[in-house]
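Morning run. Coffee first, then this:
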Amino acid sequence: MTIKEVSEKYDISQDTLRYYERIGMIPPVTRSESGIRNYTEKDLGWVELAKCMRSAGLPVEAMIEYVRLTQEGDVTIPARLKLLKEQRESLLEQKEKIDATLERLNYKIGRYEIAAKTGKLTWEQEK
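And here it is:
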């Protein structure tokens, strides 16, 4: 696939794809004999992973480290596993914070729904 096709498929700008490759967030993309990017299924897998991890808030540095370790081969499997577990733990902590915030917002929404029906908001509802 061309960079244009990949850009459209994953809704990522061509500049972002080039940037991901340049900084090492994805390994070097397969190229044609003339040097034009020609994304293979393997390349697309890396793009999908990068997009997924970035949308989850994974730090760019962690993704770069993961790619570097992968390129070093199977000897780095324990280090990759550790990195992934650390990122999972970080996401779980973020999820707990988000869940607590959602719980509080749902409570507040419920109070305001009552207030909207009654036409007034008491201090007890505001808490």
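The CA atoms of residues 5 and 18 lie 13 Å apart. Good start to the day.
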